[in-house]
Design a protein that fits this description.
Largest interface: A-B, 32 and 32 residues
Radius of gyration of chain A: 21 Å
Distance between the termini of chain A: 33 Å
Largest sheet of chain A: none
Oligomer: homodimer
Structural class of chain A: mainly alpha
Shape of chain A: elongated
Mean pLDDT of chain A: 94
Order of helices and strands of chain A: HHHHHH
């Protein structure tokens, strides 16, 4: 079973919509890099049971994103804020206009804050 | 049954997570301002059935927001982008520095784009 990098990202986002055992399996498999056998031992279920649990969770995470598209939307915003930060930094670095510099500094602070 | 303004906003956000009949009932009740009796006729179910459907949908929408908090997060971003736009506009209006003006214009365009 191949690990899909996108799953970790979607999991960060939609984790609360999974059941507790789904969360635990995905957490161990994707974030803590356990093998299926190790998770089976940890969760006291069969290796096939773990595989099903992870597979089901992956499908759910993809389905939530397919329906809501919020991860994609947040990503676009994140990238846009990066652009805004670098443009504001550019104003701060280059202008002699103190009012423009101060407003650009406020923009930078806002945009950095929104990225968190 | 009182109409809750927040429901319309949450519905815009989490609508795809409701079933088709839940979506239809909320749509008619909140967006098209139908009465429960009118929806009952439209959907060919009892008035009590409509009430239950709307109530259940409201609870689901609140529960999704409680778990994910994405509506709140988007709202914060929206407000921050408004601030960024007005600061950028302020730079554009006041500075004689053409490079700062041009970068502020780009910031404004980016921030407006992200709000959509």
């Amino acid at each position: 079973m191949e690990k899909n990098i996108e799953i970790s990202l979607l999991f960060d986002f939609y984790k609360p919509l999974l059941t507790e055992s789904q969360q635990q399996a995905v957490e161990l498999y994707y974030n803590d890099d356990y093998s299926l056998a190790e998770i089976a031992q940890e969760m006291n279920i069969t290796r096939q049971g773990v595989r099903d649990l992870v597979k089901r969770s992956e499908n759910l995470l993809f389905a939530y994103e397919e329906k809501l598209g919020l991860f994609k939307r947040f990503n676009l915003i994140e990238n846009g804020l990066d652009e805004i930060c670098s443009l504001a930094q550019n104003i701060i670095d280059k202008t002699d206009d103190s009012s423009a510099k101060s407003n650009a500094q406020k923009i930078l602070t806002f945009a950095e804050g929104l990225k968190e």
